[in-house]
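Thread title: Can someone regenerate the structure for this chain?

I was given the following input by a collaborator and told the matching structure tokens would be attached. They weren't. Posting the sequence so someone can regenerate them.
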Amino acid sequence: MEVTVIGHGSLMSGQGLAFSGTLQVKEASIIALAGCVRGFAKLSRYGDRFATDVESPQWPLMGRLVAPTAMPNGEVETLALTVSLEDFSCLVKREGYSPIAMQQLATMAQEQGKSLADFLWSIHEEAEHNRVAYRRRLWVLTGFTSPHYIPHPVRFDDGRCALIFLAPGCEGTGADEIIAVRQETGIQVVMNTSETWRRKPNEDQLTYFLSCMLGGVHGINVRDFLTPVREERALAERLWDQLHQRLAVEQEQFLAVTSLSREHYRRAFGDTDVALNRSGLTEFLFGEEQNKKK
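Best answer:
Regenerated them for you:
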């Protein structure tokens, strides 16, 4: 069984993916999510930092494949990776969900002749696309839910389904006794980069910012991360310096971690200069370099 997983933060870069070890990625693409906002919201399990989350006023989440030559239109852009169930289990553990519970769900999916993402989509449909009802159903089926991230289905415009990990908030985890981290910390809405930095002005947070922004090397639009940085001059200067250092090695690290061929990579993400331009990284780095010289 193969699973397509959508990364909206550190899972978008080689630097971030390296934390999970080498994957055998079958397919990779840029996916735009309709009607969403992305920011930082969940206190991480792995350091003194906030990790990303995606919020939407309407459910279910819908996505579409983005060609590497298409201009961004303001939608939240993410990275979709198709991997084996075994590799997916490594990502499941990383996100604070249970690989055992996920295997239970995969077995149920196989029994119905469905992919894991299609099976979870059917549960979401039965719950009338109510997030809480969906999470309660997963709790009933597996006896597990997470205060960190929970897998939710996303439907693409071509009919395929993928999974995205979202952090539950005050609406609940699906089990009354399991309190969400976002609820414990009182983060009601996602924060932008500068707001997050004011709460966590430390190396852990800076490193995490870089893991998210380096997704721009692969053409993923990261302007929603970059634009607020200008409000924090000290942060901007540190990001300029470290992004310059990482740009040269990010693509090679991404190829090594995902096991993608260069030909496959080029089909999915296009030429490097075009990718940097569409992501917003060229504008951010070049424009700010000129400002620093003034």
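The chain has one domain: 2-293.
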